[in-house]
Amino acid sequence: MKKVLFFLVLSLLFNCKSNSSKNEVIKKETPFVWEGANLYFLLTDRFNNGDSLNDINFNRTQEAGILRGFEGGDIKGITQKIQEGYFTDLGVNAIWLTPIVEQIHGATDEGTGLSFPFHGYWARDWTALDPNFGTKEDLKQLVKIAHSKGIRIVLDAVINHTGPVTEVDSVYPKNWVRTDNQCTYQNYQSTINCTLVKNLPDIRTESNDAVELPEFLVDKWKSEDRYEQEMAELEAFFNRTGYPKAPRFYIIKWLTDYITEFGIDGYRADTVKHTEEYVWQEFRTQCDYAFAEWKKNNPEKVLDNNPFYLVGEVYNYNIVTGKIFDFGDKKVNYFDNSFHSLINFGFKYDAQTDYESLFSKYSNLLQNNLKGFGTLNYLTSHDDGSPFDAQRTKSFETITKLLLSPGTSQLYYGDESARPLIIEGAQGDANLRSFMNWEDIANNEKTKELLIHAQKLGKFRENHPAIGAGTHQMITQNPYLFYRSYYKHDYQDIVVVGLELPLGIKTLDVSKLFKDGDLVNETYSNQTLTVKNGKVIIDSQFNIVLFETKRD
């Protein structure tokens, strides 16, 4: 790091209550708060290969372009890492997986070599999992193991389009999709009623006309001996909801089935601004219904009383606009009655400023214009070709700013290990999608140091909702100190953080916060210190310290 970062974290947790015995103090459990979650985003195919027997399916044996074919990652591989404690050590309390539904069987050629649907965004059958990713039993185990560790699972929902047409994948019927009108993105209509790119059939989400199921899907279900069951479930869904049998409602039904069957905790919705806003309101209604049904049918498995989480990808949405996204000729509110949070495409620009400018800006926006809602901040992603640090020269700064900023943090797989984002021979977004660099984590000392940094800040964030969901206030500019406070019902969390303090032995004035004799735990170097004369003196080999204490 060019700048030495030195952190002082003083945590005042007034989260205790007394029972009938005045002398007995019971600590309340730290609540899970989506607004301040530490969410880990990974490509299912590129994270960890837990079952090499599912690496090839549907005769996907042709040679692909660089990083445009399946690499072997799967659901079992993710579960393995959950069991090993990888995510727990990172303080991760939610994992977002790219889509795992059955993809097109073939490949496209976009001038970069053959491209297979390893990324999951080219759906063929929403009712089945792609065998390259795993089975429904694998998904059931993933959710079960994750929940046992206090980790929520977020899947990825695509309603806007099907997968491309290939030599082995026919197009959906014309009353399901449009293929002849490509988006120009000049206004609202030219962003929605059109195909995103050539050969990506656009679902007619605006239509309320009843349609029959595609013949290929009927034949597929019959060959798998599940046609009658699927049809009976569809009939029950349409009878319950009163919806017409229009394309979008079939897909909404199929996606919400993953909630009632597996108990997933949230969805990240893809290409939101390319679909009418009322579609997401309908999706919200059915997600909430499905989540309530799952909780009712599985009371012993319910983690908390949080609602189902919906976060949307509205490309180029910036937190400064609050609830509004402006198409130029129309302004749309994607929050009310639909999304809890939107992905913030502006964070990578704001992160180029100093800490106080970044933190105070986000606190003000989240506590005012977006009060009651959230934002999902990222500095690296799977399809953003201009990440905050493409060269991976500022990896410590990336982790620090991401994990200490107000809002939900999105760690993209490999942020914590400086996984390369520029790959020789790769083109476009393929650079962002290399396989997880487990070898570096095992053997590279600099990588290990970065991972430890991410683990300590991540655990701190997980343990203190005030960091992501609290109100920010600067205490002093030099040395730079601020506090965050979070209150929910009778739970209170107040943390104080100091940045860019001098190295070596430090004498820190904490008299406004602590009284003489108070013990503080320095978790970064695992020391316990005592406040004397209103000060704490610490000598640590690290350039970061995290102080934590509790007052009962």
Characterization of the model:
The chain folds into two domains: 1-30 and 473-552, no CATH class; 31-469, Glycosidases (TIM Barrel), CATH 3.20.20. The longest helix is centred in the middle third of the chain and has 21 residues, at 277-297. Helix content is 28%, strand content 20%. Strand 21 and strand 22 form a beta hairpin. The protein is globular and about 80 Å long. The protein has 15 helices and 27 strands. The strands form nine sheets. An eight-stranded parallel β-barrel has the order 4-5-10-13-14-17-18-19. The protein has a four-stranded antiparallel sheet with strand order 1-22-21-20. A three-stranded antiparallel sheet has the order 25-24-27, with no helix packed on it. It has 552 residues and is an alpha/beta fold.
- Number of helical segments with 4 or more residues: 15
The percent of residues in helical segments reads 25-40%
Q: Could you state the CATH homologous superfamily of the largest domain? A: Glycosidases
Task: Estimate nothing, just give the exact number of structural domains.
Answer: 2
Number of strands: 27
The CATH level-2 architecture of the largest domain is identified as Alpha-Beta Barrel
Proportion of residues in extended strands: 15-25%
Return Rg in Å. 24 Å
Euclidean distance between termini CA atoms: 38 Å
Rounded average pLDDT: 92
- C-alpha geometry: globular
Report the structural category.
Answer: alpha/beta
The unreliable regions are 1-27
Tell me the major beta sheet: 8 strands, parallel, barrel
Highest-level CATH class of the largest domain: Alpha Beta
Order of strands in the sheet with most strands:
4-5-10-13-14-17-18-19
CATH topology (level 3) name of the largest domain: TIM Barrel
